[in-house]
Amino acid sequence: MYTSFEPLVGWAVLIGTCLYAWLKGAVPERLGAALLFLGTTLALVIQLTLPVASRTVPVLIGEGLLAFGFLALAIRYASLWLGAAMILQGIQFSLHAFYLVMERGHDRLFAAVTNVVTMGIIIGILVGTTLAWRQARLAPQD
Question: Confidence band (pLDDT; 50, 70, 90) for 137?
């Protein structure tokens, strides 16, 4: 499936972050992590099952749905990290649309921006989860 070590490290970081958010985070962090995990898994399924020529539109739709999901969560929970995740995912959607319209193949710039966006969202989930966990620990016990 993968030909290099880096994607495996990326998946390990993603899964570890999602587990951390699920175990220690509040509802927004859990939902955000679940949304990111589902979006990434959907992208992997598209990459593995569809021919190269027909992957672009489904992936673009998935990017848009992920950005919309982060928008809905950001509006519902008024969380700064969710707003940042929504903006980052919007950047990823815009990049994908640009490459589609300009009929450009994926190059190093595309890969770099995709990796920065994904790491930014993961860092946002980590920060949001840590803050929610800290706030829950400092809250007075009833």
Answer: confident
